[in-house]
Amino acid sequence: MSAPVHATPKTPPKTFHVKSFGCQMNVYDGERMAELMAADGLTATDDAAAADLVVLNTCHIREKATEKVYSDIGRLRKHAREQDRAAPMIAVAGCVAQAEGEEIVRRAKVDVVVGPQAYHHLPKLVADAAAGTPALDTDMPLASKFGALPARRRVGASAFLTVQEGCDKFCTYCVVPYTRGAEVSRPFDAIVEEARALVDAGAREITLLGQNVNAWNDADDRGLHGLIRALDRIPGLARIRYTTSHPNDMTQGLIDAHRDVAALMPFLHLPVQAGSDRVLRAMNRSHTRDSYLRLIDRIRAVCPDIALSGDFIVGFPGETEAEFAETIALVDAVGYAQAFSFKYSPRPGTPAATMEAQVGDAAMDDRLQRLQAALNRDQAAFNAATVGRRCTILIERRGKLPGQWLGKSPWLQSVHVIGDHAIGDMVEVDLTQAGPNSLTGRVTAPAAATAC
């Protein structure tokens, strides 16, 4: 739908730039929007300040996300004035677009606002805007957008592939059910077809994406583990990953796939959010501390060297110091290889935003620092424990030093090596040195993927 407001027609854009914020799914969506614009005849540029069209692909999860969008819009227009050139057309896409809708058109006078379920309409919306009609589309149609997207033609060594969107969990702090809609699984055949196209375009590794990716299923009840086993049969696909998972959707079939499928990497992002059962109930997380820890035990039973990652929120409304201590104790019990941690921030329209006993900033800052110290300790310990191991890395890009390359280990660690390599190479290395955020490896030989 288009806003019934008319403006001065503009010269149709010839170049574009997409800036994506937030999660891997936004990265995927940004890539697909870029492919749409390229298929419509526009040329991509890495310089936002020089582009005729700038697409701000937004995330609404973190605090002040909306204000950051308005700041970016202001900076783009200020830079254009300083350069004595026409301001670029601006399209706001993603979850902030979905949440704010016509308010962005009214407040920022942008040209296009398009939600995450409607971005396949972006070329038409841009054409409408160039004709003088600020265009808005935040519909959530039943028909999938994926069938309208162009074929994948060129990707990096590692590629994202969305298989599931939306969320039915309704955690009380989260806007995803309102900005992404209900849980929807893409059809099995469409996913396999896109995966084959990604491999044909150069991908050696595919990461399956979804707000609750392990909730993916189809009419044949194959489950995510069945999809992974099917993708494992694609020639040339060396590695498979998936994110983000919900503990309640972690089936035994998926757990067993970590034992049985060599291409499925020994890495799992499994958010818990808090270590207190009372806080988890208030979050509507539908799992308990004990059920989460027992799930971790089941996973490690089939894949002992799996690297675990998680998400944590500190300062959820009503969280006491004793309840925060339960989160620290859970971190100590699990030993995460890496994790993400955030201060609670109220999102408008979510139940938690109006809960009583909101925790003060000073207490949240203190708790976040203590939590991150524990998580950093465990990440450093995990990295140090892998020194001396031999594994396969996937070369993804050049390093900063002459002859240096950066690749990813099976455990999603960044590994620096020196040698004569190319992006997409799978090379065997001995891990020789560990830092807090990366490792150094010595190349031994080309190799195949490593399993648990």
Structure description:
It is built from 13 helices and 19 strands. By secondary structure, it is α/β, with parallel strands linked by helices. Among the domains are: 123 residues, Rossmann fold (3-Layer(aba) Sandwich), CATH 3.40.50.12160; 57 residues, Beta Barrel (OB fold (Dihydrolipoamide Acetyltransferase, E2P)), CATH 2.40.50. The strands form five sheets. The chain has a six-stranded parallel β-sheet, sandwiched between helices. The longest helix is centred in the C-terminal third of the chain and has 26 residues.
Keyword list:
disordered N terminus; disordered C terminus; OB fold (Dihydrolipoamide Acetyltransferase, E2P); Rossmann fold; 22% strand; 452 residues; single chain; alpha/beta; globular; 5-stranded mixed barrel; 6-stranded parallel β-sheet
Short description:
By secondary structure, this protein is an alpha/beta fold. Helix content is 34%, strand content 22%.
Strand content: 15-25%
Strand order of the largest sheet: 2-1-3-4-5-6
CATH top level of the domain at 15-137 is Alpha Beta
CATH architecture of the domain at 15-137: 3-Layer(aba) Sandwich
**Which class do the helix and strand fractions yield?**
alpha/beta
DSSP strand tally: 19
CATH topology of the domain at 15-137: Rossmann fold
The CATH homologous superfamily of the domain at 15-137 is called Methylthiotransferase, N-terminal domain
SS field, number of helical segments: 13
Based on CA atoms alone, the radius of gyration comes out at 23 Å
Overall geometry comes to globular
Mean pLDDT: 90
Largest sheet: 6 strands, parallel
Q: pLDDT under 50 segments (min length 5)?
A: 1-6, 448-452
Q: Bin the helical content.
A: 25-40%
Note the gap between the termini: 50 Å
